[in-house]
C-alpha cells in the first residue's frame, strides 16, 4: 500500500489508520532517511492505541516502552538501532522477550535486515518528496 502525506499531521493520520489494522505481536520496521517521519509515525500509532506516554526517538536510550489503553495491545516497544553496530547487540536488549508477544507490538527505526524468525513482519518505508511531503509504503514481508 502506498500513501502520500502532505504534513506531519497527515503522517500521524496514516499511522492511526495503520494502527487500527494491528492485532498484536507485530514487528514493524521503519525505514527511511533522517527526518522522513519515522518517529512521527510512531507518535500516530501510540496515540491511536491510547498511549499517553511521550514518544521521542530512542536514539540514545535505544529502547522506549509505552503503555497503551487498547483492549488487547498493551505495550509498544519503540526501538532505534541507529547507534547499534549489529543485530547481535539486540540480544542485550532482550528483544526476544518482546518478539511475538501477543499483547505487544515492536516498532524499529533504523532496523537491521536480518530479523529472520519474526512471524508478523511489516515494513514501512518513508521517503522525502519535498520539505512537507512524504511517500509512505506499507508492506508485509
Ligand atoms: N509529511 C510529513 N510527515 C512527517 N514529518 C514531516 C512531514 N512534513 C514535515 N515533517 C517534519 O519532519 C520531521 C520528521 O521528524 P522525525 O523525528 O519524525 O523523523 P525521523 O525519521 O524519526 O528522523 P530520525 O532518523 O532522525 O529519527 C518533523 O520535524 C516533522 O514535523
Ligand atoms: Mg526518529
Polypeptide structure, described:
This protein has 141 residues and is of the alpha/beta class. It has one domain: Rossmann fold, CATH 3.40.50.300. 19% of the residues lie in helices and 30% in strands. It contains three helices and seven strands; from the N terminus they run βαβαββαβββ. The protein has helices at residues 8-19, 38-48, 95-98, and strands at residues 2-5, 26-31, 63-67, 75-80, 104-109, 120-128, 134-140. The protein has a seven-stranded mixed sheet with strand order 1-7-6-2-5-4-3. Helix 1 (8-19) crosses helix 2 (38-48). The longest helix is centred in the first third of the chain and has 12 residues, at 8-19. The radius of gyration is 14 Å and the shape is globular. Bound molecules: adenosine-5'-triphosphate and magnesium ion.
Please give the structural blueprint.
Elements: E1 2-5, H1 8-19, E2 26-31, H2 38-48, E3 63-67, E4 75-80, H3 95-98, E5 104-109, E6 120-128, E7 134-140
Parallel strand pairs: 2-5, 2-6, 4-5
Antiparallel strand pairs: 1-7, 3-4, 6-7
The structure holds adenosine-5'-triphosphate and magnesium ion (MG).
Adenosine-5'-triphosphate (ATP) binds next to helix 1 and helix 2.
Task: Sum this structure up briefly.
With 141 residues, this protein is α/β, with parallel strands linked by helices. 19% of the residues lie in helices and 30% in strands. It has a seven-stranded mixed beta sheet.
Please give the number of β-strands: 7
User: Looking at CATH, which topology would you report?
Assistant: Rossmann fold
CATH superfamily: P-loop containing nucleotide triphosphate hydrolases
Q: What is the element string, with H for helices and E for strands?
A: EHEHEEHEEE
Total number of domains: 1
Strand content: 25-35%
Amino acid at each position: 500500500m502506498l500513501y502520500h502525506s502532505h504534513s506531519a499531521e497527515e503522517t500521524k493520520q496514516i499511522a492511526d489508520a495503520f494502527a487500527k489494522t494491528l492485532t498484536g505481536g507485530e514487528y514493524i520496521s521503519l525505514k527511511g532517511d533522517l527526518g522522513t517521519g519515522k518517529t512521527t509515525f510512531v507518535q500516530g500509532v501510540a496515540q491511536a492505541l491510547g498511549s499517553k506516554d511521550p514518544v521521542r526517538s530512542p536514539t540514545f536510550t535505544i529502547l522506549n516502552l509505552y503503555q497503551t489503553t487498547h483492549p488487547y495491545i498493551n505495550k509498544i516497544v519503540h526501538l532505534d538501532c541507529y547507534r547499534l553496530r549489529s543485530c547481535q547487540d539486540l540480544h542485550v536488549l532482550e528483544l526476544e522477550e518482546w518478539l511475538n508477544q501477543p499483547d505487544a507490538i515492536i516498532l524499529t527505526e533504523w532496523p537491521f535486515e536480518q530479523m529472520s524468525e519474526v512471524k508478523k513482519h511489516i515494513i514501512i518505508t518513508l521517503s522525502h518528496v519535498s520539505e512537507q511531503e512524504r511517500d509512505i509504503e506499507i508492506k508485509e514481508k
